[in-house]
Each structure stands twice: as structure tokens, then as C-alpha cells.
Amino acid sequence: MIWYTALVLAVAGERLAELAVALRNTRWALARGGTESGRGHYPAMVALHTALLAGCLAEAGLADRPFVPLLGWTMVAVVVAAQALRWWCIRTLGHRWNTRVIVVPGLPLVTGGPYRLLRHPNYVAVAAEGLALPLVHGAWVTAVVFTVLNAALMAVRVRCEEAALASAGGVPA
């Protein structure tokens, strides 16, 4: 369980790094006339992602979930792949990447990197990580609850992003 705690804390550290990037990018976008959409769902997103990390440790420890090597190591690989995809998205979007929905008017839609393959690749990374991280140590309840709640949240989030991009001229309305 010690190494699993270290893995979850490493993911938490990665999330803090994301927040630092997002804060820098928020300043950049707002200085260029960017507008934020979807403020209402942002606290729910923060709470859900925080609960994922806490739930992983709580369920694995309190329910005495075993580490099943075939499942566990496979899920570690998925977590690593999700992190790689997430940082590919961050690198591709550059200053435009954010944990919030902030669109700078007049900028063309990004269609390179993972965005040439998927419309919202960062959310694929979030979904994969949210399922895989708990399953590394058998926390299947956390995996299921996060996946269901995240799907509902992503339905709201994607509609919000699409509307914001359309209003800024990033996609056809």
C-alpha cells in the first residue's frame, strides 16, 4: 500500500503542476481579452477530482483491497499513458490550455497534436486515469463512482466548451 500511496501522491503532485500551468495560462488569456465560461461547474470538477484521489486511498486501505498484479500493472500503464496524453495536450495547446474554459477571441482552433485525432483528447486522458488509478489497487467502487460522475460532468463541460468556442469564432455555430 505504501507504493500505491506514493503513486496517488505523485498524481496529486501532477495535478498541482497542472494548476500552476493553468494559473499562468489564465493570466495570459485574460490579458488578451479571453472570457471565461462555465464557472458554475468548475467547483464540482475540482471536488470530483479531489475525491478521486482521496477515494483511491480510502477504499484501497479501508476495504483492504488487494493488489492483483495483472490488473494492477496494466492499470499503472494506463495511468502513465493518460499522463502522457494529458501533457501532450498541454504542450499542443500551449498558453490556451487551462483547467477552466477560457477562450481568447479570434484565435484559430488548434488542430495539431492529439487534436488532429480527437476533438477533446484531454478528457480521454481524464476518463482513462479516473478509471485506471483506482483499479491499480482494486478500488473498483471509486473507479465506478468517478466514471459515472465524470461522464455527467463531461457532458456539461463539453457543451460549455463547444458553445464558448463557437461564440469566439473557433468553431461553426
Give the beta-strand count. Answer: 2
- Main sheet: strands, sense, barrel: 2 strands, antiparallel
Percentage of residues assigned to helices: 55-70%
Strand order of the largest sheet: 1-2
Shape: elongated
Rg result: 17 Å
Number of helices: 5
- Residue stretches low in confidence (pLDDT < 50, at least 5 long) are none
Query: Which sequence of SSEs, written as H and E, runs from N to C?
Result: HEHHEHH
Structural class: mainly alpha
Q: How much of the polypeptide forms β-strand, as a percent range?
A: under 5%
Distance between the termini: 50 Å
Q: Mean pLDDT, rounded to whole units?
A: 94
How does this structure look, described?
The protein starts with a helix and ends in a 6-residue tail after the last helix. The protein has 5 helices and 2 strands. The radius of gyration is 17 Å and the shape is elongated. It has helices spanning about 1-30, 40-60, 70-95, 120-135, 140-165, and strands at about 35, 100-105. The mean pLDDT is about 95. The relative contact order is 0.18. By secondary structure, the chain is mainly α.
